[in-house]
Write a structure and sequence with these properties.
- The protein has one domain.
- It has 9 helices and no strands.
- The longest helix has 31 residues.
Length: 197
């Protein structure tokens, strides 16, 4: 396997993981509400979950290929339901002045578990592993490189969206209801995209 395959994988991963999705919209909303520092556990949970899901996709791709017809319909609706729950939490979030803890950011566990309900990430992992790595045979090093590349690309997209949320923090204090409504609607849109694929 050549380095070009990994570069193609990285470019494809960046093109797909930088787009709005449950992780990115959740981070935009959370960091605009609580700031970047308070959302670090959520970000770390998302990254750990991403890495875990990508490792599972890599090591279990052959088995999952057989099970996908049974798993996808259930996973899609469970994932969409969780994203709708996140939309509800975003819409009903209380607004503080940035110092009062009227509500708390989502935790490491929330970020980690979201990855197992995020059908977009699972499908990308399976599709990209099958397209870029599987044709060259099974090698542990390739699976580890695949998981690292996918996590790094998605994590970079997460940081971009989280930073954008931090920049918007002063605006959030002024327009919290509007921003929460828009973010909740974007999460509802993500849920719709999950079940409509």
């Amino acid at each position: 396997m050549t380095a070009a395959v990994f570069w193609e994988l990285a470019l494809s991963a960046c093109a797909t993981t930088f787009t709005p999705g449950p992780n990115n919209i959740l981070l935009l909303s959370s960091t605009s509400t609580f700031g970047f520092r308070k959302c670090r556990p959520l970000i770390l949970g998302i990254w750990t979950g991403l890495l875990t899901v990508m490792l599972i996709c890599g090591f279990g791709c052959a088995v999952l290929g057989e099970l996908i017809p049974q798993i996808v319909p259930v996973a899609k609706y469970v994932g969409a339901a969780y994203v709708l729950y996140l939309a509800y939490k975003t819409l009903t979030r209380k607004t503080g002045d940035g110092t009062a803890d009227t509500s708390r950011p989502l935790t490491y566990v929330n970020g980690f578990l979201l990855q197992f309900l995020n059908i977009k990430i699972m499908m990308l992992g399976i599709a990209f592993y099958s397209s870029f790595i599987l044709p060259y045979g099974f090698h542990v090093g390739c699976v580890l490189a695949f998981a690292a590349i996918m996590t790094a690309c998605a994590g970079t997209g997460n940081l971009i969206w989280a930073t954008l949320g931090t920049i918007l923090f002063p605006l959030y204090k002024k327009y919290a209801k509007v921003i929460n409504t828009v973010m909740a609607l974007l999460l509802v849109w993500c849920a719709w995209k999950i079940v409509s694929v």
